[in-house]
Amino acid sequence: MKLVDSVRNISKIPELRDRIVYTILLLVVYRVGSHITIPGVDASAVAAASQAPSNDLFGLFDLFVGGAFKRASVFALGIMPYISSAIIIQLLGAVTPYFQKLQKEGEEGRRKINQYTRYGTVVIAAMQAWGVSVSLASPSSFGQPIVPDPGLFFTISTVIMLTASTIFAMWLGERITERGIGNGISLLIMIGILARFPQSLVAEFQSVSMGNKNWIVEVVILAIMVAIVAGVVLLTVGTRRIPVQYAKRVVGRKVYGGSMQYIPMRINTAGVMPIIFAQSIMFVPSTIVSFFPESETMQQVASFIAYDSWGYALIFGLMIVFFTYFYTAIAFNPKDVADTMQRQGGFIPGVRPGKSTSDFIDNILTKITLPGAISLAIIAILPTILTKFGNVTPGFAHFFGGTSLLIIVGVALDTLQQVESHLLMRHYDGFMKSGKVRGRKA
């Protein structure tokens, strides 16, 4: 009943209703584009070849773009080149003085950084599009020839088409962020993942009905899946609150301060970004390998970094831990927080203002980030473990844990938070009884 009332309240707010409808329409456009085959590719041959399950890293890439890669769609690259470009720009911001200066220039600096990110997206998309064109022209990629007339013209047209489609997808994401609800780029990734869930669920139950799996074991697996989802939600919204006391100030006839407030420090401050960053980096070797389909050395490298290999799980887990600390350092600066508190007359009880406060916050941030980073890494490699030991189909294992589940939960909670904020600003109840989702700022 509470959910029904919240949905009814959404329909009463014209601005929020229009934003949701606008978001849905652009997501539909993105999904329609993922079913349009690249010119020059035999659509019937692609349809026949795409029925075979893919258990490599390209299979995971295909999951992120909602099956567009295996369908040889114009949106085969999805939004991942933009994510890769954003990673590179943020890495440059941590080590290059010029980009550090841009990050401190406010709106003008952000505008220039976004511009450089778009330029990088074009370059990365063109490189990956070239790799896709080589892969499509190679019969070994799909098990049968799917390009009737491979050649220079096909390569050039494919590169142009895929690059332009990636830029269009980036534009859709930016429009959703600006005029819709939620983060547009993240929503495009999430909708691509959810598009495969019904098919994977049906395949899993067909395996049970055919007697390949015991239904009791399947029920236990589904129960564990629910527990993992609950754990991911707790990891996403879990916070450590640091008390801050503000001294009383008399301004004219009014008294300010004198109250106790809290700094909410999330266990997973970086959110889903470490997963996306690490996953984007893991796509790079596979893209390079696709340029050399006849090389035995490259094929050995491909088998080592295959999605279901232990080598992939180890590298992927370590990269997640690294990017968790890296992105947390970018998103939360203890020194800036300590300086702001000192200017406003605030202090942490028992801790001296200034550097001592900064060190205190940094120490707590480091301690709570470690279990968060390890938990992210464990959840991310769960599909690999389940595929090897749990007799779970690869398609369904993606939703059991790993990147897919973390992205879905993180993006869903962020979108829910924005919807809830619109409701609270207009004096409507949110989705929770208290008016805000626990562990997240309203």
Automatic annotation (TrEMBL):
PANTHER family: SECY/SEC61-ALPHA FAMILY MEMBER
Stored PROSITE patterns: SECY_2 (PS00756)
Family: Belongs to the SecY/SEC61-alpha family.
Protein known as: Protein translocase subunit SecY
Matches recorded under InterPro entries: SecY, SecY/SEC61-alpha, SecY_CS, SecY_dom_sf
Subcellular location: Cell inner membrane; Membrane
Gene: secY
Gene3D superfamilies reported for this sequence: SecY subunit domain
Topology class, membrane: Multi-pass membrane protein
Spans through the membrane: 20-38, 79-99, 119-139, 151-172, 184-203, 215-239, 270-292, 312-333, 368-390, 396-416
Provenance organism: Chloroherpeton thalassium (strain ATCC 35110 / GB-78)
Superkingdom of this protein's organism: Bacteria
Lineage summary: Bacteria, Pseudomonadati, Chlorobiota, Chlorobiia, Chlorobiales
Role description: The central subunit of the protein translocation channel SecYEG. Consists of two halves formed by TMs 1-5 and 6-10. These two domains form a lateral gate at the front which open onto the bilayer between TMs 2 and 7, and are clamped together by SecE at the back. The channel is closed by both a pore ring composed of hydrophobic SecY resides and a short helix (helix 2A) on the extracellular side of the membrane which forms a plug. The plug probably moves laterally to allow the channel to open. The ring and the pore may move independently.
